[in-house]
Structures
1.
Amino acid sequence: MQRFEYDVTRHSADTFRELTFYCSEKGECTLDTVPQEQTDILKALLNQRGWEGWELVQLAFGDNGLIAFWKRAIRK
């Protein structure tokens, strides 16, 4: 049976000041106003953790930044 370990990391709004997913009252959601610089920061984070063997499970956005949930297989 495969086993996993998990990690949760916090990333401040100072780093991701414009990488927030907003939806209108009608439920229409858009990311078209997010600057390329912000997506590049997120991509660098994902790639770094990926090289370390971590797989992103979920991102949660909030007023103070974001929380990332990660998992990776435990080697026997």
Note: The radius of gyration is 15 Å.
2.
Amino acid sequence: MSGRVTRRELLAAGGGLALAGLSRPSLAQAAPFDWKKHAGTTLRVITLKFPLAEIQQKRIADFQQLTGIKVDWEALPEDLMRQKIKVEHLGGATDLDVYMSYYGQEGQQFLASGWYTDTVPLIKNPQLTNPDFQWDDFIPAVRDGATVNGQVPIIPDRAQALPILYFRRDLFDQFKLAKPKTWDDVRNAAKVIHEGTNKQVFGIVLRGKGAAATSMLGPVLYDFGGRWADRSSGDIAFNTPEAVAAFDWWGSMLRLYGPPGSVNNHWAEVTSIFSQGRAAMVYDDITFATLFSDPAKSTVAGKVGYAAAPTGPKSEAWRSEPPIAPNSTGLAISGFSKKKEAAWLLVQYLSDRTSSQRYMLQGGLGARQSAWTDPEVAKALDPEFLETGRLSTQINAPGAAPHSIANVSKARDFIGEAVVASILGQDVKAALKTAADRCSELLKEERAKK
């Protein structure tokens, strides 16, 4: 080890949220920086229609005034966004400058295809990087997860964390249930509330739309003792009794205690059902806390409790392991862009302290250490949420599919068919074997091309 602060040490310090000695450099002391260098340029951006993107989009007007750069911003639903970014790159488009990217799902393919710009030379160049950008302000584990063979293809705009369990405090009080600690606790609570309300309230809502479910199901798979792939060889390893048990748990929870038509539910549908008060629990991305706590958007605002991901029989065996693979979500500069320097001005502006702090204030997990130590954040946020976030960022999620496969989207589609089979009460073992065989063939094809 080089003496760098680890994620666990960072979040354990000062009640789990502080890194002692961090100070924000004064803008008055910073070297002059020319924000107007590329005035008159127009940048095109494609990003996800998501709470953090909304924060960033609201800052575009200030950026345009500061730099003289015009920004054409397009925020799309997740599936459409991913498809459009891929299609444009496959077509060699040079007018897409900046886009949102999740390395865990598409990074290997994008990196190998030259669709990313390495930002390390940009970060190190004082003529191109605002001195207040401060790469060292990013949480050490976030920097580690963003670094791939010495390159930084994505500037992270959020900390990575396991999904969390949201639960209705009022219903748990009504039925005298404790906060779930294990997946068995979750099953019991879902059954008690679903049956106790005469099935007027779903016990739980989870993603069930095939591939969309795999990123949430991944930790459950590992908690039950399964794995996407062998950590050292990369060979497919999820065709096991433990994996069958995990997939069966997911599907049976929705089949018995979830909403009809769960196979059509992505995160938008799942969060809508919970925010409407129609479900007692939802296990999903931690960033949805902002939605559930907003009285204008949620009927359960003020009634939501937060719990770190429950545990299974094999949780301890994997949750303390180092990251399986690079994992970063944020803004990337297209490798085909002809305006990389101007694009870098936008990326660094939107991933600064202000965006990180505002994201924390809306319930997200800021990528920067300064966001976690911000007095406004500590004052504004539910202590239970902050503690849940602290615990969740200490665990490295296993990803949405085998880390050894570059074409993650296709692998998730294969695995997603097994998720659907489980929800529908079909033969999970057979469906999982088919998915594993297809992923193994895909991996074999990819290895043959190297």
Note: The domain at 7-160+325-381 is CATH 3.40.190.10 (D-Maltodextrin-Binding Protein; domain 2).
